[in-house]
Amino acid sequence: MCFIMFVDEITLQTLLSEGQKMDSMGFIGLWKIVVVRNVPYLDMRRVGKIPKFLTHRLFPSARYSIWLDSKLRLQHDPYLILEYFLWRRGHEYAISNHYDRHCVWEEVAQNKKLNKYNHTVIDQQFAFYQSDGLKRFDQSDRNKLLPSYVPEGSFIVRAHTPMSNLFSCLWFNEVDHWTPRDQLSFAYTYFKLRRTNPDKNFHLNMFKDCERRSIAKLFGHRAEDNRNISAQ
């Protein structure tokens, strides 16, 4: 089992200045530190989507992975997490629903209210999704395919199966093409995967956010530094 932490040079120097010590093998505690250089985007939020969604490309020999945002600290044995979220019921991808919002319409409004990204780009992305068939989330629909259309993407448990890998690649394509706000594109990506692969099952486990909070302890994000150049 490997624990990998992706950081840039400034984050590494911050960790070291706070008393974290990296040994001669490049570890801080259990974590192998990978310093990311020559990044393909100016917006560091978008850079972070590369290890988040393309884990199977970075670690092609790995059969499973658990993604944690920097704001979380894992509280349980990773093997028990794999057993509970994947193996117990034959799932290949596990992610929690958002703690407050379930409809993409609500998520769009919240992103614009908080100025999370350029409003024009958000509107263009949302208009395209609607034109390609995205509908409002209906909690009363007994035949709904997802318990929520908005995920809490800070904690993802994956088996590196063909369909799981394809979903991750398609989701990455959306944050690469549009905004890095991945909660906006989750539902569209899921339905696109189902539509374009009608004969293949994708075993997604969208679990309750209270389960995520029991697994990983929340810490606040560090203040965003001015190196992040967004489209605002």
From TrEMBL:
Q: Where is the TOD1/MUCI70 glycosyltransferase-like domain?
A: 1-221
Name the coiled-coil region(s): none
On the tree of life, the source organism's domain of life is Eukaryota
InterPro entries xref list: TOD1_MUCI70, TOD1_MUCI70_glycTrfase_dom
For this entry, the protein name equals: TOD1/MUCI70 glycosyltransferase-like domain-containing protein
Organism, by scientific name, is Platanthera zijinensis
